[in-house]
Amino acid sequence: MLTSIKTNSFEGNKSKELGMMYFRVAIILFGAQLLFGLVAAIQFLVPGFLFEVLDFSVARMVHINALVVWMLYAMIGSVYYMLPDETGVETVGVGLGKLGFWVLTVAVTIVVLVYIFVQVGAGTEASIWLIHEGREYIEAPRWADIGIVVVVLLFYWNVFASYMKGKQTGIMTVMVANLLALAGLYVTGMFFTDNISMDQFWWWWVIHLWVEATWEVFVGTLAAYALIRLIGAKREVVEMWLWIEVLMLFGSGILGMGHHYFWIGTPEYWWEIGALFSALEPVPLIAMFVHVLYDWGKEQGAHEAKGEAKGVITNGPAMAWIVTNAFGNFLGAGIWGFFHTLPQVNIYTHGSQFTAAHGHLAFFGAYATILIGMIYMGVQGAYGIERLRATFKSKMGIFLVTFGVMGMTIALTVAGYEQVLVERAELGATWNAFFVAQELPWYVQAQMWRAIMGVVTFVGFIYLVWDLLTIGAQAKKAQA
Ligand code: HEM
Ligand code: HEM
Ligand SMILES: [Fe+2]
């Protein structure tokens, strides 16, 4: 099974090999993310679990930082993977890309080990440089921050130079412009201010402008590329949609950031700005959903009209994950986001388990899904398979992971609902009210269901990895 990890039929296409290197680390970090999430979930039920060995604060930190980092790995992998197809040339600096990969991977390993081994201590200037910065989701200490910037610059140079050298498709034009914004925003989360309002003001520039603007545009470009490769969608059609999506995503997502400025000490005009623009954010997500289904239906119909025996889809598992993405993005970000985005609602839900419910479904629906789809496309390419069919393991993987995350989301929504009713509305959001609400049966049972559904998610993940390791060799044998 292990030899299968190395197999590739890219015939010297180094860029795709590089993409696969990033994909492999992404999957390992995804597994780590889930394990640390399980530890944190158990700690909600048994607060003493692993106390002073692996504290909740650390388990949670590793859980959400691993999440961000695996997604960045999978994104870089996806770009290297699609680059030669889109530009028609080999990536310019494959050696540089490999160097970047190793520097990043060594840095990430050291950072995680430090998180785990140095759990308590004084918070000084030195800890910002050496241990972590204390900024949720992007906690890397400053030395690693600087390293990340250097690696990302190398990556960006590779993408930009290959783009200039080869064909400039609409998909790649959006990719190149969007990646510049995505990378540039990271820098806004790097400097230090004593003023916590100011710190949060800039921190949201990374987090919100990533997930609700630049990452969404990134997903738009991946979906466009994938639809062309998977179902033979017409380039003119997907690129037309892509430009509309870009316009709508940036049009609503940038000022939609106001929905994080309700309670951090920023001026009150952000209430109206945040309410209005963030309420518009689901619109492009509906458009993206419609677009995927529309293209799929259209190509399938045209295919059948020609009387072809085989279906239109050339990679079953990848397509399944991409359709799940279209739906999950709309549901997790659009619907669960809209629920709490108006200040009138957010005053009750802010920072409750409801937020966590949205966070899980949105990150999963919008990003995890499509990135897993890209990894399946990588496996198909690596084995040179014309049509990759879903296996029993592919189906168990997608079903259990999606069912598990959906189950966790519903459980957390119930917990959040209880917090709103008891802690916020009835008891007036006092310190004491917080603890009273945490002990009531609705809350405790909901946390129990979250843990159970977390285990379901993890079992699904095992099927997923097992499938990724075996599906290629199996399909190759069948093809021969
Ligand atoms: C894929 C896109 C999205 C992702 C990955 C995402 C993820 C998240 C996460 C993780 C948080 C918690 C942040 C924290 O730790 O404080 C959050 C907060 C929030 N999100 Fe989203 N989100 C997305 C899209 C949206 C959309 C489209 C809306 C509105 C329509 C929205 C509305 C909100 C609001 C109002 C909060 C603040 C909750 C609070 O006050 O506690 N999100 N989001
Ligand atoms: C084995 C499955 C998982 C379990 C048991 C789990 C558990 C947890 C726990 C206990 C927390 C801390 C919540 C808090 O501080 O109240 C958390 C936070 C978070 N998890 Fe997970 N998780 C799992 C999978 C995932 C997946 C698949 C994603 C996304 C792809 C994800 C994204 C997040 C995010 C964004 C947060 C921060 C939410 C916020 O602060 O609002 N988790 N998770
Ligand atoms: Fe936001």
Cα(first) to Cα(last) distance is: 19 Å
Bound molecules: protoporphyrin IX containing FE, fe (ii) ion
Quickly count the helices. Answer: 17
Could you tell me the strand content as a percent range? under 5%
Uncertain runs: none
Q: Could you tell me the radius of gyration in angstroms?
A: 22 Å
The average pLDDT value, as a whole number, equals: 95
Shape: globular
Strand elements, count: 0
Q: Which range best describes the helical content: under 10%, 10-25%, 25-40%, 40-55%, 55-70% or over 70%? A: over 70%
Q: What profile does the largest beta sheet have?
A: none
Structural class category: mainly alpha
Element-by-element helix/strand order:
HHHHHHHHHHHHHHHHH
Quick summary:
The chain is built from 17 helices and no strands. It has helices at 2-6, 14-45, 56-87, 94-117, 125-130, 142-165, 170-187, 196-231, 235-256, 269-280, 282-305, 316-339, 343-349, 353-382, 392-426, 431-439, 441-479.
Show the helix and strand layout.
Layout: H1 2-6, H2 14-45, H3 56-87, H4 94-117, H5 125-130, H6 142-165, H7 170-187, H8 196-231, H9 235-256, H10 269-280, H11 282-305, H12 316-339, H13 343-349, H14 353-382, H15 392-426, H16 431-439, H17 441-479
Helix pairs in contact: 2-3, 2-4, 2-14, 2-17, 3-4, 3-6, 3-14, 4-6, 6-7, 7-8, 8-9, 8-11, 8-12, 8-14, 9-10, 9-11, 11-12, 12-14, 12-15, 14-15, 15-16, 15-17
Bound molecules: protoporphyrin IX containing FE (2 copies) and fe (ii) ion.
Explain what you see:
There is one protein chain. By secondary structure, the protein is mostly helical. Helices cover 79% and strands 0% of the residues. It has helices spanning 2-6, 14-45, 56-87, 94-117, 125-130, 142-165, 170-187, 196-231, 235-256, 269-280, 282-305, 316-339, 343-349, 353-382, 392-426, 431-439, 441-479. Helix 2 packs antiparallel against helix 3, helix 6 runs antiparallel to helix 7 (170-187) and helix 8 (196-231) runs parallel beside helix 14 (353-382). The model has no long low-confidence stretch (mean pLDDT 95).
